[in-house]
Design a protein that fits this description.
The protein is mainly alpha-helical. The chain has two helices and no strands. The protein has helices at residues 23-30, 51-57.
Length: 65
């Protein structure tokens, strides 16, 4: 477990979407106001970064069963 004395807001989510469409299509459908992407998202890759959760609490999502 990572050693920390602070609190952080973290997103805990899957690495990939399992909804059948690519992430950019889904984002345009549900969040049409998003025009600028901070990071490039490929295929069904999650548009929400797991980098902070991985670095702070060593989070690694498990594939669905």
């Amino acid at each position: 477990m990572a050693n920390s004395e602070s609190s952080y807001a973290l997103f805990i989510n899957a690495t990939y979407s399992f909804l059948g469409d690519d992430s950019k299509t889904l984002t345009r459908l549900f969040f049409p106001e998003i025009k600028i992407w901070k990071n490039m998202v490929k295929g069904t890759e999650s548009p929400v970064s797991l980098d902070k959760a991985k670095a702070l609490i060593e989070f690694e999502p498990e594939p669905p069963v």
